[in-house]
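Final report, closing paragraph on structural work. Over the funding period we assembled a curated collection of sequence-structure pairs, and we close with a single example.
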Amino acid sequence: MDFTGIDKFSLLDFDEMISIVLFAPGCNFRCPFCHNIETVVDAKERIPFEQILNYLDSRRGLFDAVVISGGEPTLMPDLKDKIIAIRKMGYKIKLDTNGTNPVLLEELIDQNLVDYVAMDIKNSVVKYPLTTGVSFDFSKCEKSITILIKNKVDYEFRTTLMDEMHSKEDIEAIGKMLEGAKKLYLQKFVYREGVINKSLHPVNEEKAKLYKTILKKYIPIVELRGY
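Its predicted structure, as stored:
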């Protein structure tokens, strides 16, 4: 399976790293706030992996890392082989994931194939179907949370805040869910034309700071992103 997009220069996706971002096709969620449905998940074009490898080879020494995002990268049946090929060139690897494939996540970590993992925490458990647009077995996400909290690899959790979907009660539940984790980013929702639900609004800064205070009872590092 080939990637569907590439960002050839990023200073934002992997802290302190000059990165190239690859976008995986397909996702098992249909989050109503997703920016990538049309450009990644529903995209018809694919970039031959050999072409990506040639580009990465030509940029050795100029870039530090490759960020593998999506869509949901762990749906790619050959993701591990692709990471191995990229890693052989000396790049660090960051993986963005929704946590629904804990078996592959643990394998990549245990085999030292990723340097950083960013896992999305969409909402409290009871609101996951609303926030992801699908019903699924949440225990898979719970397993991924447990895997990351073991601290075998550097990681972050991140939650995109929307006024219509997150309440104080949800934030408290997220804190309890992630108790023992070291870091969570609260991200500001940014409206774009391609989002599924066009009636969503960002949580304002005052409320986001309140949510940060609630979460710091459970997680030592809680930061706002985009505010």
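Residues 18 and 64 are 5 Å apart (CA to CA). The chain has a mean pLDDT of 93. We thank the funder for supporting this effort.
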